[in-house]
Amino acid sequence: MDQDYNQAKVERLYNTYPFPPDPLSDDLPPGYNWRWNWQAAHNFALGEKPKQNNIRILDAGCGTGVSTEYLIYLNPTAEVVAIDLSEKALAIAQQRSERSGVLKGRSPKVTFQHIKIEQADKLEGEFNLINCVGVLHHLPDPIAGIKSLAAKLAPGGLLHVFVYADLGRWEIQLMQKAIKLLQKEKEDYQAGVSIGRDIFASLPENNRLLKREKERWALENHWDQSFADMYVHPLEFDYSIKTLFELIDSANLEFLGFSNPQYWQLERLLGKSPQLMELSENLSLKERYQLIELLDPDITHYEFFLGRPPLSRTDWSDDLVLKNAVAEVHPCLYGWPEQSFLDYEYQPVSLSDAQYNFMRSCDGRTPIAEILGELNLDNVRSLQDRQLIMLSKAHQESD
Question: What is the mean pLDDT of residues 145-164?
């Protein structure tokens, strides 16, 4: 495979259809994606608030800058570097951040650079947080890409990755092949979009490909950019749990867990059968993941955190350590400080009076032992597990 030739095809696609197609706005980005908030990501992956916030962030494969804008907005004391292979997408990314106002008043610098993921190891310095969403699976050599990123990850740093899952993209793969067959492999992406839309318009209503498109993808695919990214992309690798962990292992980083953990709980699929749950206890963690993806072929992607050792974790199971710790309210809650609000995944939460009073007292300075009120320590651990608070050792310095 000619890697330069294939990468040039990907660059042409994104210069033709810059992605993602989200419109530019004169307003600051709404809401949050907690995976792009350094404090929230660190709390999730390592179980505690990070010790510093004046960090460096790399948005690796930023596209038109939707993720970059949030990384800038949600991490106001961080230096942010955004890179992409598409000049047109990169120009839109810079315009997006300038227009929305996230760059105003910032002292940490924000830069946009036209380079490939495989060249990330040539960037200056190291990064505490690297975001790489929807990119590695479009590289000629994903292993070379993740190794390049791993080389720039600082000790204790986090790498957030999103790649496609094979089983959940079965109908997409068939449509991709059908369009290529009708195109005779011609590299005309606009013609490919036209052919694909004509196919969907012609298929009978009970056709499985059409039903899947209508049920799952039609809302975002009304944009030609999204349709092209999904159905006429010239280069795509889809993963299984087996090949995913081969990719992860190649980077020599530690797997810290999926960032959509609710999907990877076997109980949601087999919890009605104590016998099956007992049998599953004999499986390794990877085998449990394999079983989940076999039983739920709707999983279309994997999103997860990796970390570079040494990684600092605090064991909050010790009552004395927890009593002496301090707590802060999680930075990604919508509607707080009301007693009912949305959590970091925009799911509804209603606190008891005791939980609410405790969280109102979480100021990041006062030891937990002094603000427990009617709560016990297991209640505090539950709030931490649910990502409603962040814990840190007392007197922890924060930049």
Answer: 98
Would you say 191 and 17 are in contact if contact means Cβ atoms under 8 Å apart? no
Question: Residue 314 — very low, low, confident or very high, per pLDDT cuts 50/70/90?
Answer: confident
pTM to 2 decimal places: 0.96
Pairing of strands 127-133, 56-60: parallel
Contact 127, 136 (CB under 8 A): no
**Percent of the chain with pLDDT strictly greater than 70:** 98
Tell me which of 3.40.190.10, 3.40.50.150, 3.40.309.10, 1.10.1660.10 is the CATH number of domain 3-166+238-307: 3.40.50.150
| Type of residue at 197 | R
Task: Give the residue from 365, 353, 358 showing the smallest Cα distance to 388.
Answer: 358
How far lies 239's CA from each of 41, 165, 290, 392, in Å? 24, 5, 12, 36
CB atoms within 10 A of CB 215: 8
